Amino acid sequence: MITHSIIVTSPNNDLEEALKDVPYGSGFRVVNFLKFHPVAIYPSDYEGPSVTGEYAYWTLYIGGVAPIVGAAGGSLKHRSKAYGTIAGLPGEEWDEVAIFEWPNVQTMTSLAKHPKVIELSVHRIAATKNLRMVPMAIQLDGN
């Protein structure tokens, strides 16, 4: 059973553990590196139309969660086409980079468990061939 909408690269898929070094109560940003499937790959029981990965992510997933995220104080700060990789793993390429801002860890973790966000995460999962989410401070000095 899915308990939240993000697959986390920490023990036990623990989002709080993955964000443990973000200062408590502090606003932060998450840099998203996105590689889309040419056509979104949905589970066999999905009954929706065939769409591109980019459409599934931005229109169906982000378009669906944006009102929930916005009401909680989260926002998209930047979205851009990626123009290659200067340093990274061999063969690792990205289509886009997006930066989202969150008022605090508690907001992000609670929204990741929101039933509608979990429901819509099928589109993010179907859309992305590869995804990295990297938390960072809002300013260089950590404030």
What does this structure look like?
This is DUF1330 domain-containing protein. The protein is α+β, with helices and mostly antiparallel strands. It has one domain: 2-Layer Sandwich (Alpha-Beta Plaits). The chain has four helices and four strands; from the N terminus they run H-E-H-E-E-H-H-E. It has helices at residues 15-18, 53-71, 105-112, 115-127, and strands at residues 28-36, 75-81, 96-102, 128-137. Helix 2 packs antiparallel against helix 4 (115-127). The longest helix is centred in the middle third of the chain and has 19 residues, at 53-71. The relative contact order is 0.30. The model is unreliable at 1-5 (pLDDT under 50).
How would you summarize what this structure contains?
This protein is α+β, with helices and mostly antiparallel strands. The chain is 31% helix and 23% strand.
How confident is the prediction overall: mean pLDDT? 85
Can you identify the CATH class? Alpha Beta
Residues in helices, as a percent range: 25-40%
Rg value: 15 Å
Helices and strands, in N-to-C order?
HEHEEHHE
* Beta strand %: 15-25%
CATH architecture: 2-Layer Sandwich
Query: How many structural domains in the coordinates?
Result: 1
Low-confidence stretches: 1-5
- Strands ordered across the widest β-sheet: 2-3-1-4
Structural class determined from secondary elements: alpha+beta
The DSSP helix count reads 4
Cα shape: globular
Q: Give the oligomeric state of the chains in this entry, treating copies of one chain as homo and distinct chains as hetero.
A: single chain
Major sheet attributes: 4 strands, antiparallel
The name of the CATH topology is Alpha-Beta Plaits
Strand tally is 4
CA(first)-CA(last) distance: 37 Å
